[in-house]
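User: Can you write out an input/output pair for a complex, sequences first and structure second?

Assistant: Here is one pair. Inputs:
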Amino acid sequence: MLVVRAIQADDLDALYVMASQVGSGMTTLKPDMKMLGDRLAIAVASFAETIPPEKRDYMFVMEDTDTGKLAGVCAIKGAVGLEEPFYNYRIGTLVHSSRELDVFTRMETLYLSNDLTGSTELCSLFLHPDYRTGNNGRLLSKCRFLFIAQFPNLFTEKLIAEMRGYQEEDGRSPFYEGLGRHFFKMDFNHVDDLTALGKKSFIAELMPRQPLYVAYLPTEAQQVIGKVHVSTAPARRLLEQEGMYFEGYCDIFDAGPVLQARVSELRAMRESSVSTIGLATDWDAACAPETAVSEPVLVSNTVLKDFRMILSHAAPANGAIELPEAEQRLLNCHTGDAVRTLSLNPRKPNV
Amino acid sequence: MYVVRPVELTDIAALEALAAVTMPGVHTLPKTREKIAASVERSIASFSAHVDIPSEESYLFVLESLDDQAIVGTAAIFASAGSNGTYFSFRNDVIQQVSRDLNISHSVHALTLCSELTAYSQLSSFYVGEKEQGGPEAALLSRARLLFAVLAPQRFGDRFFVPLAGITDAAGGSPFWDALGRKFFQMDFLDAERVIGGARNRTLIVELMPHYPVYVPLLPGDAQAAMGQIHPSGELAFNLLTAEGFEADDYIDIFDGGPILQAHKNSLRTFSGALTRRVETAAPERTAVPRVTYAVAASSEQNFRAVVVDCTPVEASASIALSQDAQDVLKIAPGDNVLCVRI
């Protein structure tokens, strides 16, 4: 069975094994014992609340309890851009108009910005290929929203997620080729590596300071602004289901979209609820005709230090949820404990 | 024999005939009779105006072939570019990209819309008939404007510039315009030049042209290649002007990317090399002395005339020997002063 839980100090070796399977394209999870060790230490301190909220980095791992192996990882950074500048392009509009000539031209522009400084960031999502089935991806991605809904006071009001930008099959980024290459004279992979080493702000400082007119870029570069990598499209949909959306910020290298949301407007904030483990009597459901399969539900405990979350088919009713014994064990919970629940999928309209 | 002189009302018909000949790359010469007449009148008014500070004056000169009394060339000078507005151009900027941490250092070329050429004096409308293009008359015509500026410095700025037409294709399209101006103006190059009348001082330029630097590496290859390149028709003017001391590297035109040559007057040969000499009537030929070609202008603001003269070097002499013909054309007599500069 799978459980997503707060990372623990003794997960380092398993984390390293997983990081070495990630491959390129994921800048925040590289197989480097020192980097991973540092990050793990921060994560552990975050859950223990021994460092200030803006420095925290909550890492979660998905564990297969049958084998004890890690199946995936994801994280929430308390705040970005407070130690080194966090750069994005903001897509803006400039109107050039002349009454005399009766010309009205709308020009899209890219402004180098630090607008998202201080936002809470969802990041570092990786699911091992062996586990990319069923609802596992959803469980791993959405666990973070349930965590935020349980502890909203730990986060800033603005939530963001940087999505990997569009690349061609051979890894070529049309946006980078059309823009960044002219200013860095290095390959995209090299830039990616430097980003991973925390040198992104150095590179950003080489970017043109003045706004850029999108119309000057090659067409193929213009077309991929705000477009995600093919393999990232499902991840983007999951976040959009939870209330995040593209608001015109994108990555300075590959133009991947930054999804944003206000924490108070997340689906998890509106729809999740706390129930007590125990006998649930759902009179409505009892009277209704039996449905073939009950909807999957995300269930988490309510303990910060040992946050755990699973996917269950038990339906909460009238403030109670009847969790099977095995699932209670996964959550380290007992009858009478409080759990937070959220339907895995958004309610379909008109149903 | 040829003379360069201020345009007169009687030249209007001849100028109209010149304008009927297609002149690719010349956008500053008026085409219609009405506009030609207006520019001639403006020039006459400018020459007769008493000027303390250069302003909206524009001086139009013609090259006349005295043998057949034909107008075979034109050249103009505006006292103060953008006089009732701002003269816009693109400045070539180099932005240094340096990161010590990454051990990166290189430079990026950018174009910035600027108004620095405002209030410079502007040379324009240079045109010479085909027959005269190879001769010293072309140099005389180009230089006569500057000789006038030497005579009447209060009428002009301390700096001069000359925009030269950029590259266009057979259909009149400009690769630089297509990559840049078209995106803002949404019209063809020649249409844009027509609406704006070749001017670079209109408010609509501020309204439409990019306010932020244009990073050159982002422009298509053909547009980059066109930057600072002259239209073939401008080659003669380019050679004459660079020989004069103009420099081409700092500015380009905002429409077609053609070069804008500019210089401080002190670095121009006409200013630094012009000599004032007393006129004498030339004695009979003395073949032993090598002869030198000069542009010679009458030292009179109101009766400006310039001709090409072959004579003995005048650098070491207080006077210049001119033929009676030349004296007649210049409307001067022995004892008068003339301004001369080697061609």
